[in-house]
């Protein structure tokens, strides 16, 4: 905003005209432009605070804000996270393979993709693709699958149904060398 007003002062810009507002290059126009910039900044900061407050409240209730990870889905009616009827069981099988100690994450990814036909859920513009190796690592290292929500460096107990127990998750982390 300050740069735009500076350009108006230097006469690099003549006027600012928009579909709903016009700011002329005079003291009143620049004053109104400054007020509009201030209001915009207030609105954005206020919205940010409200979103953060809502996320904190949801986490404290045991629910993860935003998009549910693979194997779960967001229930729009209850605003909670529920099991995905197809992918939840496949992810459980992936953990079971890892817990045997005889499969590497790459072998698990190939088994899931080629043997089980694991494909990501189809959404409007994304999904419906075979499971990637990087996604397998994310699944095997994400504590959400053990019922723990990590948010802003803090851990919270989740109310969602875990795929594995905490002990199983910790064993998988040992097998991965983490």
Characteristic terms for this protein:
178 residues; mainly alpha; two-stranded antiparallel sheet; 6 strands
Structure description:
Strand 5 and strand 6 form a beta hairpin. The chain is elongated, with a radius of gyration of 25 Å. With 178 residues, the protein is mainly alpha-helical. The strands form three sheets. Strands 1-2 form a two-stranded antiparallel ribbon. A two-stranded antiparallel sheet has the order 3-4. A two-stranded antiparallel sheet has the order 5-6.
Side by side, the strands of the main sheet go: 1-2
What is the H/E order? HEEHEEHHHEEH
Structural class computed from helices and strand pairing = mainly alpha
- Find the count of extended strands (DSSP E, 2+ residues): 6
């Amino acid at each position: 905003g300050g740069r735009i007003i500076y350009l108006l002062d230097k006469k690099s810009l003549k006027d600012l005209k928009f579909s709903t507002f016009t700011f002329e290059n005079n003291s009143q126009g620049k004053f109104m432009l400054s007020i509009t910039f201030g209001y915009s900044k207030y609105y954005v900061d206020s919205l940010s605070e409200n979103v953060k407050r809502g996320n904190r409240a949801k986490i404290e209730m045991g629910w993860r804000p935003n998009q549910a990870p693979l194997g779960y889905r967001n229930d729009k009616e209850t605003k909670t996270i529920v099991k995905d009827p197809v992918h939840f069981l496949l992810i459980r099988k992936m953990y079971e393979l890892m817990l045997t100690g005889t499969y590497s994450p790459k072998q698990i990814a190939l088994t899931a993709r080629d043997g089980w036909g694991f494909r990501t859920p189809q959404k409007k513009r994304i999904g419906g693709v075979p499971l990637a190796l990087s996604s397998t690592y994310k699944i095997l290292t994400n504590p959400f699958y053990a019922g723990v929500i990590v948010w802003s460096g803090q851990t919270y107990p989740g109310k969602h149904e875990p795929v594995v127990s905490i002990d199983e998750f910790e064993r998988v982390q040992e097998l991965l060398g983490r």
